[in-house]
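Moderator note: this is an archived Q&A kept for reference. The question asked for a predicted structure of one protein chain; the sequence and the answer are reproduced below.
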Amino acid sequence: MKTVLIIIGATILIFIIKACMPSGQKPQPDTDTTRPSNEHLPKQEKPNDKLVIVDNISKTEMDSILNGFCNMYNKERFQAQPRLYKLNERQFAITFPFDIEFEIYCYFVNYVHYPMGFDKSFSVTGWETTKEANGWITEKSANKKVMLFIPEDDTEHDNVFLTTDNNIGYKLGFAMGEEKQLLQTPKKTYFAPTIDIKTLTEKEAQDFQ
């Protein structure tokens, strides 16, 4: 219950910040680095296949985005511990070796696309295999490989789109009652990641918390 309240509180905070900003001014990232004591830091990795690829972005921009997200979600509990891999000068891969709740994973994809403190968005795609217990997941999308993304024509800024590996599409809205909207056709056709997550272990990585 506490986790749910934290998620709801963080989401409401984002909307309040955006609503209170003067027109044309971008909300700034959370710079508060408050964290629980290290004794609460997860140390046992959990097998999962969550993978995010971000294109056309610099290392400096990537670091700023990941730090901003962790500042927002790790104040009271370590909910996001992304691991960053550099694929080339303008492309990065992110995994979650300690796993991350599905709802927060959706927020993560949205945040990377629409990061606070930036006047531009970034190309981001996430993949994972869903579970029936995941929030926002229905019988049509449970236990399937899925792709998460923000389409280029999005204007709402408070959602992510999901396509299953058998091309069932959903719009996952962050507002109450809009969490799982089945689409007649998916916004994008599913495609598998071009990178095998297992091969990333051979690369140098940077952990954020």
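Archived answer notes: The chain has one domain: 46-207.
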